[in-house]
Amino acid sequence: MALVSFDIFEYVHDSRQAHGLRAQDYTRYRRFCAHHLRTVRKAAKLTQGSAAGFSKLNVTSENASSTLHVEVQLLQAERAWAYAMDLRELHSRTEEPRQRQHVVQRLKAAVNAAHTLAAIAPGFCDARTALAAAAYWLQLQSQLRFELQQWEAALDSAALARVITDRLAQAGSSHFALAHAMLEALDPIVRLAAYQMRVSGAQHAAPAAIAVQWYNSSMRGADDRVSAAIPEYADISAALDKLSAPTGESVAFANELHWRGGTVSFASQELAAQVDRAQGLLKAASGDSSDSLDAAVAAYRKIGKTARRCYSESVVAAQKSQTAALDALLSAYAAVQLYSVCVLSAIGVTQLVNEAQSIVHACGATSNSADALLVWLAEPWADGPWTGDKNSPRQPGLAQVVVCYDKVRQRLAALQHSVTEMEAKLLPMVRREIRTQQIADEAVAAEAYYTCLRNYYSALLHASPACAQYVDSLALLDMVVAENAPHATALTDQLTKRDVPPEAADADAPCLCNLAPLPDKIAQVAVAAETALSVVRGLCVGTSENTKAWVHSPISRLSLVANTLASKSASVPQRVPNLVDFAADFAVVPIKPLFYDLAAPAIDFDMSAINAQADKQGASKLGSIIGSLWGSR
Fold first, then answer.
1. Angle 485-496/436-463 helices, nearest 10 degrees?
2. What pLDDT is recorded for position 86?
3. Which alpha helices (H) appear in 480-631, and where do they start and end?
4. DSSP assignment letter at 508
5. Are 592 and 425 in contact (CB under 8 A)?
6. Phi, psi (degrees; rounded to nearest 5) at 257
7. 6, 369, 468, 628: most buried, per Cβ within 10 A?
8. DSSP state of 264
9. pLDDT given at position 324
């Protein structure tokens, strides 16, 4: 028989909020429980009344097999509990002893129903549902012990209920965090019981901290004492040990993601399994296997999809109850989404960069040798002038390199946007753990570096015989030397000065260790751009015969390149003129009405002449109107 899985805390919380307790109407809630109990009993075939008479049918370990039997016990406990709370409000106004006795009787009935569920749940429910039933029973029992002024037993039950609930929230889904809203009703009980038991530090500590402290100091290792008030304490402790190891923190979950030297804990075991699988696939794809890399990309996309779903579920739970555990879950799932986005972005950037470098090396050129690149540009058309064939192997390849680096910049810009969007969803502690600001800074530095490469190869493309746009090539090279390379170097220096621990390197994703480039690579691009600048500058200011020889005489290209590299003529301009270096011609600008508004205070008008002209025009217009109606004189 398959084990039953039932979310007890969500069921109880939704029932209470939807049927009266939002307005503290216990009578309405009790009536709902009684009516719904009859419906559920009928569906479970446990009806107790018929035309022949009354026959009591209880849920036992022999007949319990479905979620309907869990609902029967929950509704019985909730009906008795709601009646007790209703009587307590009445007793607070009348203070009659009989009403208090009635409150105790109804609480005992609720505890008995919940205890029955906790006792039979391990037989037909899974481990988490059984522990949730035990936590629900302990919550009701702590209220009963508190009503009877049994402070130690009340504190034992409340502390164990909180420990169980925290452990379920650590290892389970986000719905278990709804139990923290129910635990808020136990905070006054914990405080007063701890005060009565003279717990040290209880006056200034939070109720959750008091409960955890009491459990660790007074309950663990004291099975004989605790079992007197909680008979199933040994079984509950064993079930807790099987579920997960104790952490002592109410917002630290059992599943963890180690990334960038920090640790992010979350609750979904499904998401944890997907993270482990994706990290294994990425390690296996460290070679040249494209199939393994595609599988890793698909796995990380699945991580992002699951993290978004878990985040949406946590948002729905947060709308019902806002707790510290839910805030931690929301931040953790947002961090996992950011992790998936960063890995996918890094893989995409690495693929595009490798594609661009393979194109360059396949054509026999490198990024750190400008003269070799220019010779390489001259080689494809050595047999004759370039005819504009789009299928030429070199020039379209260089254009593809520029396209690759443009795509790299787009991916890095999208990564910056994602980091900014996700950072708003993270708690400050999580931001410090994974250093989200440094991720954005690394993406900015990487974008600046690839902008250098993009402009460098674009300049060489403009200097090729297919384009022969030497001025544009000079402008791009001058931009690389004067702007792009210094900017990328400054951003990289800022990153290297930061105190980053060595464990920040991700063993599962080497491409994510450092998105920012090394200063040596930027320096190589700057040197190559300076060398290419001297070559293209000579071509730009040369005579028309040189330009024609470059385009139409393939035989003279190699010697022309050698001569321009060897000559350092003083007539060569040192930089490309900017727009500000040219005198702009004055243009006729039409006058706008705003001009008159601004100039009106400085104009000396002849108001007498203006008024006389206005009166004259007004009189003539009025006369024409009257004449058109009654005729002229």
1. 160
2. 92
3. 485-496, 519-541, 544-552, 557-566, 593-599, 607-630
4. S
5. no
6. -125, 120
7. 6
8. E
9. 67
